[in-house]
Every structure is written in structure tokens, then in C-alpha cells.
Design brief:
The protein is α+β, with helices and mostly antiparallel strands and 273 residues long. It has 9 helices and 7 strands; from the N terminus they run ααααββαααββββαβα. The strands form 2 sheets. It has a 5-stranded mixed sheet with strand order 5-4-3-6-7.
């Protein structure tokens, strides 16, 4: 796949997920907008507000002028505060206002993506408040496909409408989440040099991966099979997604080998902010 084909694949994956969100919301009764999701402190309305806000920021729209209440317990730092502001601003919006704004934002963003003159390796700004940084245009599109798909799944779980667990954006998301796993094992968990982790994931997206920490403390991940890992995690794809994104209590995970290491790994598994 050429670099331009990769860009288009990311755009197509983003489009599929954000249109799926619109389809989920179209028949939604008013009271369902207030259902809680696994994102701490966020309802269905809040997740949709977050998606709208980030796409609007990428379009160059100004951030809203708004003061956050002081009693939001899920705000734990500046990054959370940055993401919360446009969400809280929309908490008084009606369902028709939300769906109308989402549809209009998707139309504008789709047009902007079609007309974009960026080359795949051009550096662009990833808007994330205190975590903002310059990334390549391709990486920005990958991150947006990942974020929108993860929130599509948040909404599907909250609304009891499963689907798209094996979509194109799901595969992009798998690669992004797996890329963060070596750091989790080596840094967050603090596993010693020589440690080996085997990961066996089943379901709509299935894969085997092995993370190894070398003698210098550097961790890498690959598709080779380790016959005697220090710890092996066996779980399904949706449980992996929820763990890697810090979503609620995970489903069943089988831990073989070093139980203490496995417990520490599961406690630090999230790779998202």
C-alpha cells in the first residue's frame, strides 16, 4: 500500500465509524442521550459532544468560551479539563441540536479531507491541549480513526447495539493499542529485563503477540510465538479494547504464569490518556 493509499484508508475508516455514530443516534429516544457510558463522567450526549468538538477543532473552529463547574469529580488533570470544556458546554443541548451539529460537522470535515493538500509526511498539529504535538498527516488520520471508533464502541455498549468490532478502524485501533503495550510492560509495570509477555486475543479480531524486554530494558513487540513466557494473557477482542482504553471492569482474562506480574499488568494496561 502506498502512502497516499494509507491516507485514504484512514479517511475511509474514519468515515465508516463516524457515519455509524450518526446512524446510532438517528432513532435514539430523548432519555437515551443521558445514559452513562464507560467514559468516566460522560453520558451518550457527552461522548457525541467530544467527537464533535475534536472534529470542529481540526476544522479551525474556535474553542467555546465556557467556565467548568468545580464539582466534576472525573476531572483529574489539565488534559481532562481541556477535553471536558466543550463537552460541558453542550450539556444543555437538545437531541435535535446534537444530531444536527454532528451531521453538519461531518459534512464539513469530509469536505475538508477531500480538499486537503497535505502530503502524508507533512507535519500537522494534533489538538490535545497539554498533550498537543506535531504529527504526520497520516498519523493524525490514524489517531482520528482510532478515537472515533473507540467512541463508537463506547456508544454501542451504552446503547446495547453491538457492531463494527472488525471494521477497518478496528484494525487501525488494534495496531495503535498494541504499539503502546511494550511501554506498559517496561515502564508502567516496571518488569525487569528478560521478561516475556504473550498475548492471545480471540474474537472478531484475533491475534498473537509477544512482548520482550531485552537486557538493556528496551521492550519490543512482534508476532513470534514464545513457548515459555513469564506471563500469558488470554482474552477476547472487546475485553482487550476495554482494558487498553481504560473502560470499566474488563471481561474474563486468563492469566497463566507469574500471577503477580499479570495482576500488575492488568492494573496498568490502559494506553490512552
Amino acid at each position: 500500500m502506498t502512502e497516499n493509499q494509507t491516507v485514504q484508508a484512514c479517511i475511509d475508516a474514519w468515515t465508516q465509524s463516524i457515519e455509524a455514530i450518526s446512524e446510532l443516534l438517528a432513532p435514539l429516544p430523548t432519555d437515551a442521550w443521558n445514559r452513562p457510558t464507560e467514559c468516566p463522567g460522560w453520558s451518550v450526549r457527552d461522548v457525541v459532544s467530544h467527537v464533535i468538538a475534536l472534529e470542529s477543532e481540526l476544522l479551525g473552529d474556535p474553542r467555546p468560551i465556557h467556565s467548568l463547574p468545580g464539582d466534576l469529580r472525573h476531572i483529574t488533570g489539565e488534559f481532562a479539563r481541556y477535553m471536558e470544556l466543550p463537552v460541558d458546554k453542550r450539556r444543555c443541548h437538545t437531541a435535535p441540536e446534537m444530531t444536527g451539529e454532528l451531521e453538519y460537522t461531518v459534512i464539513r470535515r469530509s469536505r475538508a479531507l477531500r480538499n486537503a493538500k497535505h502530503e502524508p509526511d507533512d507535519l500537522v498539529r494534533w489538538p490535545a491541549g497539554p498533550l498537543s504535538r506535531d504529527v504526520t498527516y497520516t498519523e493524525l488520520l490514524r489517531l482520528r480513526a482510532f478515537d472515533v471508533w473507540v467512541h463508537e464502541q463506547d456508544l454501542r455498549r451504552a446503547l446495547g447495539v453491538p457492531g463494527n468490532l472488525d471494521s477497518a478502524a478496528a484494525l487501525i485501533s488494534r495496531d495503535i493499542m498494541l504499539a503502546g503495550l511494550p511501554k506498559v510492560l517496561a515502564k508502567s509495570v516496571g518488569a525487569p529485563p528478560g521478561t516475556t509477555l504473550a498475548l492471545d486475543v480471540s474474537g472478531p479480531v484475533e491475534f498473537l503477540r509477544t512482548v520482550r524486554i531485552d537486557d538493556d530494558g528496551r521492550a519490543t513487540i512482534d508476532e513470534t510465538v514464545s513457548l515459555a513466557p513469564d506471563v500469558r494473557l488470554t482474552l477476547d477482542w472487546e475485553t482487550y479494547l476495554r482494558l487498553a482504553c481504560g473502560r470499566g471492569r474488563p471481561g474474563p482474562v486468563t492469566v497463566d504464569g507469574d500471577q503477580e506480574l499479570g495482576a500488575r499488568l492488568l492494573a496498568h494496561f490502559a494506553v490512552t490518556p
